[in-house]
Each structure stands twice: as C-alpha cells, then as structure tokens.
Write a sequence for this structure.
C-alpha cells in the first residue's frame, strides 16, 4: 500500500511538472503574443510612421525586408535604406560612401526604431534565445517574465544586449520591456507601454522610457524598482501618422 501511494505521488508530481512546462514555455508565450499583436499581418506588410521628425517605412515580405528613414538636415534630403544585405545612405538622392564605423552607426539607428515599432514581432528570429524567468505582478496584474538574448552569429552588432519582456498572462500583450546595452558606455532602460491602438490588425504602442536612479541596479530588478518609483523618466517614445498597407 505504501509503495502504491508513493507511485501515485510520483505520477501526480510528474504530470504537474509536464503541465507547468507547457504553460510556462517561453516560446509558446512569445508565439501567442506575436499573433495577438498582428504578427501575421506584419510579415507581409508596408508600414509607414513618423518618429521624432523623421519618416520611416518598413517593407516586409516573408523574411525579406527593406527599412527606410528619411529626413531633412541643413536643407539636404537624407534617405537611409537598410535591407537583408546592406545599408546605404543617399544625400539629395545621390548615394554617398561611408566609413565602416559610420555605416554601422546609422544602420543600427534605423534598425532599432523599426525593431521597437512592432514588438514582439522579431523575437522569433534565428539568433534569438528565449528563457522563462518567472511569473510576477506589476500594478496588480500578472505577467510572464521572459529573458531574451542573442547568438553572436546572426545576432547583429549588439548581440551581447539582453532584453526582458513582461507579457500579460491574460491579454498576451507586451506591456513592459527592459534592456541592457553596451555601446556608448552602456546602460539599462525600462519601457512602459501606453496609448495602444490597433491599425489594420496590428498593435502599436508608445512608451514611457525610464532608466534606474541607481546605475548599479541589475536588469532583472527593474520591474521592482518601477513599482517602488526608483526609475527616472527620460523620454517618451511616440509613433505618429501610422499607416499600414
């Protein structure tokens, strides 16, 4: 009888663990969040928006992309174009040659804006690694806390950056994110999504952009520091004049 009870206990614990693994699988959670946020539409779309006096266009066709940024600088028309293979800058519609360091700087700037504009789309890229951290609460709501890192191969110039996403357990949407970067002396940022709007099935949000008051604070503690009001608001990340084609 005793052996039988032990056997039942092992079976129950084993089943509970398998159930937990399914419920709290980072890949499954991210997949659902991408779908809810319009990932299928984004995958074959043209997006146009404005951000800080610059115009951005993103053409995506099932893995192929072309990201554009255009603006006026000292009466010159600047157009930056980044695709799967290269980055190019045009000044008054003529291509200009750039030093490698400048090309990388501009390329990263263009890619960063387009990357953040449609999160969590992009988290299933080949070089992305996802790890389930915990289930936590922010402002009384429950979130899946997921860490994202990148492989060096195909992970871009900032492959050593680390991101954390807080995905609402009920809506499956990304309400908060944080990241640690290493360029320009490095730093950490925490973003709070607001002003959600759905345009042609795609979710767009703006962000309150914070940094920790304590520079030594760990990336994983930023959710707690946000709750404790120990983050400083640096800026607002706002997309305007959004079009989906």
């Amino acid at each position: 009888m005793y052996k039988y009870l032990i056997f039942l206990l092992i079976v129950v614990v084993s089943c509970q663990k398998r159930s937990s693994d399914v419920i709290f699988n980072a890949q499954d959670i991210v997949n659902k969040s991408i779908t809810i946020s319009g990932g299928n539409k984004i995958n074959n779309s043209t997006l146009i928006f404005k951000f800080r006096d610059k115009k951005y266009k993103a053409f995506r066709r099932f893995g192929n992309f072309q990201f554009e940024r255009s603006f006026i600088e000292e009466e010159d028309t600047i157009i930056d174009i980044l695709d799967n293979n290269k980055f190019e800058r045009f000044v008054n519609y003529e291509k200009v040659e750039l030093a490698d360091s400048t090309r990388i700087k501009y390329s990263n700037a263009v890619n960063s804006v387009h990357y953040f504009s449609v999160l969590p789309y992009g988290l299933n890229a080949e070089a992305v690694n996802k790890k389930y951290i915990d289930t936590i609460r922010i402002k009384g709501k429950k979130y899946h806390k997921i860490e994202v890192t990148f492989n060096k191969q195909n992970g871009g110039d900032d492959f050593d950056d680390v991101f954390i996403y807080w995905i609402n357990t009920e809506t499956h949407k990304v309400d908060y994110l944080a990241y640690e970067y290493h360029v320009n002396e490095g730093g950490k940022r925490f973003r709070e999504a607001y002003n959600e709007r759905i345009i042609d099935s795609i979710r767009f949000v703006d962000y309150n952009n914070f940094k920790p008051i304590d520079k030594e604070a760990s990336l994983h503690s930023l959710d707690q520091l946000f709750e404790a009001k120990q983050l400083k608001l640096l800026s607002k990340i706002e997309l305007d004049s959004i079009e989906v084609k």
